[in-house]
Amino acid sequence: MSQIHPTAVIHPGAKIGEGCRIGPYCVIGEQVTLGANCVLHSHAVIEGCTTLGYGNEVFPFACIGGKTQDLKWKGGVTRTEIGNDNVFREGVTVHCATNADEATVIGNNNLFLIHSHVAHDCIIGNYVIMSGVSGLAGHVRVDDHAIISAYAGVHQFCRIGRNSIIGGYSKVVQDVPPFMLVDGNPGETKTINKVGLERFGLADETITALRQAYKILFREGLTVTNALARIETELPALPEVQHLVVFCRTSERGISK
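RESULT FIELD:
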């Protein structure tokens, strides 16, 4: 049985999974679906057409599924789709998509620290960490195991590559390549995310190859096209190296140089 505090305001149309715990003064809207074993601490707000999977934890004053802040919104049902085992700390905001029948999407096992913000139409993978007061503008994509440090801001339509890290207070206006460390205002690719890659368990051979790829891309004065051609020719065809090449080659905003 779910445990629901008597002061919680839950619309009769909401769907509450088994084993959920809903604290004092929470508000849950009509089109909300909570999976099993979700925990909502006091004063959490879940609204809009929003689905949460199982095992999510929402701390006080977090607001999930609210109306997009995009002025292009023309009405209609837009969605927020959230997977399993995510943690939303105090004051986190997640907004639904802008256009009808589209969604803001969050995967599994992500951690959103205090007052971080996910805007409309973002797509976030798995095991992502957003630190305190960091923010994503609309249509940002964040791939698995990326870390966005405190007070960093990411421009609309940017993509954050897997296993990358963005330094605190950074202003990101172009794509962040996978496996790299980006820092500054505007954000620049400084080096590989060595500590993160080691913690992730990548082999020394892979880390060495990624370091060589970084030097070719960012330290030899080549165009991105020529640098990628050199990487494909000179470096081992490891999956991570190939992923880096494809990411950079398909970037629409350009990569943070």
